[in-house]
Amino acid sequence: MSNLKTFIKGLTTKPPLLFPLVALFHILWLLYSLWLARTATPANMEWVQPLWMLAYTTFWIFTCDGRKWAAIGYILLACLNLALYFGLVRYQRDMFTSPIFPTDLLFSFFIFFFYRRLTDGDA
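The chain above was modelled as a monomer; its predicted structure follows.
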C-alpha cells in the first residue's frame, strides 16, 4: 500500500502544478464518458469514446510520473486522433474520434514544453 501512496505523492509533487490538474480533468472526463456509455452494450460503438479517454488518462497519469514513453504515447495518440478527425466524414468523425479533440492538442504542447523536465522514471 505504501507504493501506491508513494506513486500518488509523486504524481502530485514531481510535475508542475498544471499536470496534476490536467490529470484530474482527464479522470473526470473518463468518468463522464463511462456514465454516458453505461447503457450501451459492450459491442456497441458508444464504447469508443470511453476507450479514447482511458488511453488519454493512462498516458497522462504516467506522464505526471515523469515517464517519457507516456509523454510520447500521448502525443502520438493526439496525432492519430487528428488524422482520424480530418480523414473521416462527419458522422464517422463523431463516432470514432476523441471527445476532447482540440484540448488534447493543447495538452500535447504542454508536454512538448515540459519534455526536458521529465525524468524517465522507468529506467
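The mean pLDDT is 81.
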